[in-house]
Write a structure and sequence with these properties.
The structure holds two protein chains of two kinds.
Chain A lengths: L4 E8 L4 H14 L3 E6 L9 E9 L12 E6 L2 H6 L4 E10 L6 H4 L9 H7 L3 E5 L1 H8 L5 H10 L6 H11 L2 H19 L1
Chain B lengths: L10 E4 H11 L4 E4 L7 H6 L6 E4 L3 H13 L4 E6 H6 L1 H10 L5 E7 L13 H7 L3 E2 L4 H18 L3 E6 H4 L1 E5 L17 H4 L3 H24 L4 E3 L2 E9 H10 L3 E6 L1 E3 L3 H10 L2 E5 L5 H8 L18 H9 L24 H12 L2 E3 L24 H13 L7 E6 H17 L5 E6 L28 H7 L4 E5 L4 H13 L4 E6 L6 H5 L5 E3 L18 E5 L2 H6 L8 E5 L19 E3 L4
Parallel strand pairs in B: 2-3, 2-4, 4-5, 5-7, 6-7, 10-11, 10-13, 14-15, 15-16, 16-18, 17-18
Antiparallel strand pairs in B: 1-8, 6-12, 9-11, 19-22, 20-21
Helix pairs in contact in B: 1-7, 3-5, 11-14, 15-19, 16-17
Classes of the chains: A alpha/beta, B alpha/beta.
The structure holds thiamine diphosphate (TPP) and iron/sulfur cluster (2 copies).
């Protein structure tokens, strides 16, 4: 597989970003990579923007992705995808969960939610992969599993066997949610390939 | 706790998980501290290991004193805190430096450069110098665990408390950690009297001051041979001196350069520093925040560059270091796009919201404090006018009141969370009563320390180790210190709080108002059956009264004049407010705000 890479996860506090980045990291580790992940806790979690940096390779020093070097962006919210633009390069792929979460200024009618974000991204030559994580998870019977749908989509872009991801999910997701999560993962993977 | 990585015997842990494991492997048996990002999860994780006593203290000073006591009794002891917590614990710290230890004593302090979750950024290394204590600085989770174990050996060998400096990019970074053996301390647990060492009267303290000086000399020699201070020779053109996370950025930006990585940042290995300086053409010191190493290296008469290149504000990164040193900007291809910011917000149904809604209506000066409720500063609540440090709200309001005299009557209130009040607000309340103020103090009792991730505190009724415990009776406590007027209200009852606040603010004596309702994220509240509210949007006139709460469950849906007309509304109606029933927890705060009966109580969810 690619000997190293940078995956940036972003979204809004409470969307399950940390679990998604964790599952991805364990799949990388299981493939014999070194991996470091950095995230910010505290104030940032009360509904604010959240990011997690995941870097892998033979040996990883810095836990932070430099601007212009994220190979993959997994955005859990549409507008957040655009916020992290400076981290991307021309060859970056962007998986976007097609969900809108209104920031306070929009929710209180003080500003309008920006339109055409996906176009803004693809106009810049980026490969954009929209995934309806919420829809997939709802269909499978648990809206809370939307984050795993996105991991599914991401898995199709990483040169790691699907089985490795499935093993990791089996190990880390509580038994009673396992079936739903596996279904959601597989559907997400299909969506990522479409 | 995180389980082992799938195909590795090694673990993949956060710095805080690794520090907890390090404490266990170092045979720590007593640990105390106060929550504070990014240090909190150390004790939370340690509390899950068998055979270690862990507790949340009311503040960092108490936490450190508990650890000092455990050390005096011969146990290996740990105190944890965030950088500003070390200011609170500084008093025992400086004198524990004189008493030294019996069982190993380590203080883990976690800095937060760039202030991700803090009110200031400060460089804790300055404390090591000021208190004359050794300090270790790991650069990642794997090192954090090893360095903590080493810290206990240093502590017992050199009879000294040891500081270990963490930071956001160690504490909340996950990396590979190799489990190790459990150490054995040579010190026996038991009472051993040593008054000349432990009673810091001037006569004894003068003797101990000399012992500290001798210890510093011995530690200076130790630093020269300490295995975690090491020169990695590379290209001789450029040499770097660095420590902690800065080392990682240097390695990535300049993999070919020679580097002296310091594991011990106090005292410094002068000979080693000279060796590197003599061996390279150009010497650069890369460190986050203050020119701590740089100043000391320059004082050795060694020529180097540091803060003239490297920023002294905020976190560093590979890109920042590369640009600062070589002038090369990174490969940035896309400029940022101007977007609506997404600041944090109190949760839907947060009990604090009802109070701040009313403080906004009352137009008083709100002397604030630190916790989730500090978010009351943000619009639309916009009801906090100052916030300095934990526990400061009451003293600041008292100072304002004394300065303003008659003109300030009924114009200033203080707000303080339950955990913050216990941390350091009580002394100020005593002062306010004693020195005759007529202040109104509001204690926001949500039963938990919410901001840092819901740690139990002395009002919660349970301990860190999950045992039932006494729950402070705030009403009795306030009466006991001389407050005659103590009233308790449910902050979800918007109209009731307004009435109570008005009466108490107008009162010519000290009064305390306690707003009591559990945080929506405590387990009992999460489990409670909820009846979310819903909006009958036909009735909504778009008056926006409910939006003034800023509840994230209430969302504005704009309408064009045509849309409004087509829906049979006035053409001038700009939109409707809709409650998102998935997010709403049915706190009921918004109900009385709607004069058109558009908001209704719904079915169980
Ligand atoms: C000296 C110091 N220690 C710790 C912290 C970290 N901290 C910020 S807010 C907070 C707790 C607030 O709890 P509480 O007062 O109960 O308010 P809540 O968040 O529950 O609303 C802590 C521990 C700090 N800022 N300063
Ligand atoms: S965590 Fe609790 S106290 Fe903090 S904003 Fe949410 S409901 Fe309020
Ligand atoms: S009842 Fe009203 S204020 Fe309370 S959570 Fe629901 S929408 Fe928000």
């Amino acid at each position: 597989m690619e000997s190293s890479g940078n995956i940036l996860f972003c979204g809004v506090g409470g969307q399950g970003i940390l679990l998604a980045s964790e599952l991805t990291a364990y799949a990388l580790l299981a493939s014999g990579m070194d991996a470091k992940k950095s995230e910010v806790h505290g104030m940032a979690q009360r509904g604010g923007s959240v990011e997690a940096h995941l870097r892998y390779g033979k040996k990883v020093y810095s836990p932070l992705i430099e601007p212009g070097t994220a190979d993959l962006l997994l955005a859990f919210e549409i507008m957040e995808a655009l916020r992290y633009l400076p981290y991307l390069h021309k060859g970056s792929k962007v998986i976007v969960n097609t969900q809108r979460i209104l920031p306070p200024a929009v929710a209180t009618g003080k500003a309008a939610y920006p339109e055409n974000i996906l176009e803004e991204l693809s106009e810049r030559g980026l490969e954009v992969i929209p995934v309806n994580g919420y829809g997939i998870a709802k269909q499978a019977g648990n809206v809370k599993a939307a984050n795993v749908a996105l991991v599914g989509a991401l898995s199709s872009l990483l040169p790691i066997p699907q089985e490795t991801f499935i093993e990791v999910i089996k190990e880390r997701v509580p038994a009673r949610f396992l079936e739903v999560n596996l279904t959601v993962f597989r559907e997400g993977r299909k969506a990522g390939r479409a | 706790m995180t389980k082992p990585a799938t195909s590795l015997e090694n673990l993949w842990l956060s710095g805080n998980e690794a520090l907890a494991m390090g404490a266990k492997e170092a045979a720590v048996t007593v640990a105390s501290g106060y929550p504070g990002t990014p240090s909190t999860e150390i004790l939370e994780n340690l509390s899950r290991y068998e055979g270690v006593y862990t507790e949340w203290a009311p503040n960092e000073k108490v936490g450190l004193e508990v650890a000092i006591g455990a050390s005096f009794a011969g146990a290996r002891a740990l105190a944890t805190m965030k950088h500003v917590g070390l200011n609170v614990a500084a008093d025992p710290l400086f004198t524990a430096s004189y008493t030294g230890v019996r069982g190993g004593l380590v203080i883990v302090v976690a800095d937060d450069p760039s202030m991700h979750s803090s009110q200031n950024e400060q460089d804790s290394r300055n404390y090591a110098d000021a208190a004359k204590l050794p300090m270790l600085e790991p650069s990642d989770p794997g090192e954090a665990k090893e360095f903590l174990k080493i810290a206990y050996d240093i502590s017992e060998e050199f009879d000294t408390p040891v500081l270990l400096k963490s930071c956001t990019r160690v504490a909340h970074v996950k990396g590979i950690v190799v489990p190790g053996e459990i150490a054995v301390s040579k010190v026996k647990i038991g009472i051993e009297k040593a008054p000349a060492k432990f009673v810091m009267l001037p006569g004894n303290a003068r003797q101990r001051r000399l012992a500290v000086a001798a210890r510093q000399d011995r530690l200076g020699e130790f630093a020269e041979t300490f295995a975690e201070n090491k020169i990695e020779w590379g290209d001789k053109k450029r040499g770097f001196i660095t420590a902690g996370v800065s080392y990682l950025y240097v390695k990535e930006a300049f993999p070919e350069a020679s580097v002296l990585k310091l594991g011990l940042v106090n005292p410094l290995p002068e000979k080693m520093i000279r060796e590197l300086a003599d061996g390279v053409e150009e010497l650069i010191v890369v460190e986050e925040l203050d020119p701590y190493l740089e100043t000391r290296i320059k004082a050795m008469g060694i020529d180097c560059r540091g803060k003239e290149l490297i920023p002294a504000i905020g976190e560093l990164s590979t890109a920042v270091v590369r640009k600062a040193v070589s002038g090369e900007a990174g490969p940035v291809e896309f400029a940022p796009v101007e977007l609506i910011p997404r600041p944090p917000n109190m949760c839907a149904g947060c009990p604090h919201r009802g109070l701040f809604y009313n403080l906004n209506r009352l137009k008083v000066f709100v002397s604030g404090d630190i916790g989730c409720y500090t978010l009351g500063f943000l619009p639309p609540l916009s009801a906090m006018d100052s916030c300095v440090c934990m526990g400061a709200s009451i003293g600041i309001a008292h100072g304002m009141s004394k300065a303003l005299g008659e003109a300030g009557k009924g114009k200033v209130v203080s707000v303080i969370g339950d955990s913050t009040f216990i941390h350091s607000g009580l002394n100020s309340l005593i002062n306010t009563v004693y020195n005759k103020d007529n202040a109104t103090i509001i204690i926001l009792d949500n039963r938990i320390t919410a901001m840092t991730g819901h740690q139990p505190n002395p009002a919660s009724g349970s301990t860190l180790m999950g045992e039932p415990a006494n729950s402070i009776d705030f009403e009795e406590l306030c009466r006991a210190v001389g407050v005659k007027h103590v009233r308790t209200v449910n902050p979800h009852e918007i109209e009731e709080i307004y009435k109570v606040l008005k009466e108490e603010i107008d009162r010519d004596e000290v009064s305390v108002v306690i707003t009591r309702f559990p945080c929506v994220l405590v387990p009992e509240e999460k489990k409670r059956v909820k009846y979310p509210f819903f909006t009958d949007t036909d009735e909504c006139t778009g008056c926006t009264a409910c939006l003034k709460l800023g509840c994230p469950a209430i969302q504005w849906e704009p309408l064009t004049p045509e849309e409004a007309e087509a829906q049979g509304r006035k053409k001038s109606q700009k939109g409707v407010a809709r409650i998102d029933e998935v997010t709403c927890v049915g706190c009921g705060q918004c109900l009385p705000l709607c004069k058109f009966e558009a908001i209704n109580k719904g079915e169980e969810k």
